[in-house]
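Internal ticket #5521
Category: modeling
Description: The requester needs a full-assembly model to guide mutagenesis choices. All entity lines are attached below as received. Residue total reported by intake: 551.
Assigned to: D.W.
Attached entities:
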Amino acid sequence: MSDKTMTAEEAVSRLESGMTLGIGGWGSRRKPMSLVRAILRSDLTDLTVVSYGGPDVGLLCAAGKVRKLVYGFVSLDSIPLDPHFRAARQAGAIEAAEYDEGMLFWGLYAAANRVDFLPLRAGLGSDVMKINPALRTVASPYGGDELVAMPALRLDAAIVHLNRADVHGNAEYLGPDLYFDDLFVSAAERAYVSCEEVVPTEELGTVHPATMRISRAFVSGVVPAPNGAHFTSCEPDYDRDEAFQRAYVEAAGDPERWAEFSARFLAVDEAGYQAAVAALRATGATR
Amino acid sequence: MSETTAATPSTAADATRAEVCVVACAEVWRDAGEILASPIGLVPMIGARLARATFAPGLMLGDGGAMLVSGTWAIGEPPPAYEGWLPYRSVFDLVWNGRRHVMMMPSQIDRHGNANISYVGSDFKRPDVQLLGVRGAPGNTVNHPTSYWLPRHSTRAVVERVDMVSGVGNDTVAAGGPGAERFHDLRRLVTNLGVFDWRGPAGTMRIVSLHPGVSRAEVAEASGFELDGPDRDLAETRLPTEEELRLVREVIDPKGVRDREVRS
């Protein structure tokens, strides 16, 4: 079996402009932020991003990386709205496909199962049908209700952040919720898993076998990334860095402060980012 | 849990507006049986916990993460015990199966019960104000009972027609066909001024009761359209019982976060 470990830069070098990229996690929870930061530093552009959106979406929008966004919401959880996402939408800067979050689930599941669509009730009667004019309904072949035919959300690539992985791409989550990471991975042509810690295979699943939800069959790269979900939560390894998230939101509201924030935290490599976060924390300004 | 204060005994007559709202929210889950209550907002959250502690003992309640909690516990405090695991994936099992009653907090709510949490403006491609996104509102409203909570009843929020139908109302549901109508079940809107439903003519919004001290004129002024309901002898939202007040003040919300959402 191959060793799939690589750096974030190597993983991002395998992505291409114009791709459809799925991003795991949920809101401001267990987002593959170190990979997102690597994308921010790359020359990738014109991306279609599929996400249960959090600061991953805000940051990519702010950097002009997004052509189209496929989402059900974008939220920072403890802070309801992401300012960069709002600004991008209100400027008409990105194409948007907004779906019920269950529709997103079903679209990923359809892609993972290689079917064109899956039927569901969610969306019927709502303006989701109007803002997505390509959406169709489907008559039941068995005489039941006509339902929404949610099209498969096929991903060229997916990035997710898990608590532990082995070098082959088997990965486990140790927090309370997998979110939809397994579907992002299996809906994608290739998937890159960043993780808090790369461990020997035999150390996976020792808490409970049900934690082992990402299979190496779907994984092209494993990126060691301690604190890689920062500033989103990565339970039980760490909680959301609420103070840093507030700093992100405050900076995002003002161009000058955003330039400062970017220079300090985003224009540097991951080691530089983590050092800057640690330095900020040492001043007592965060956590 | 916080220590209880040595305040004078709670009496229904000194209930605050926020406490009246808590009980009005709790009432939406009366006799709901063994379903998931999903309250959005502080007052509905306190209300759901109160409902389970009193007249809706079968309710299931989450911890804001992936766990289902048993017992009665205070806002902002760790739960006493868990009774189940409900990650987001499993929430859809309950939603699509109908074993849930959500109380959402809309940015706009209209005469026919359409709710908007997506954007304000006339052009989806370039909204004036981007909000959360539709989240689960389209699916919730066509799969299980839905109520709404509005902490500030105003003409900006209570509108003739929402800018974007996120939660499906009584008129738009028909356009969705039998698949949309089958489990569509709009229950109530609780605001800081009163309790409403959509059982007026052609499924339009109607006053069920006004909170103590609220006038018909005050509600009319705060609403973006003419509300259905009698001009006089309107029902008054019931006051909390002494036991309900005790539970709210001493057990569920000893820190008084309810007053942050509704000022007296």
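Resolution: model delivered.
Comment from assignee: Chain B touches chain A through 48 residues (CB under 8 Å).
Ticket closed.
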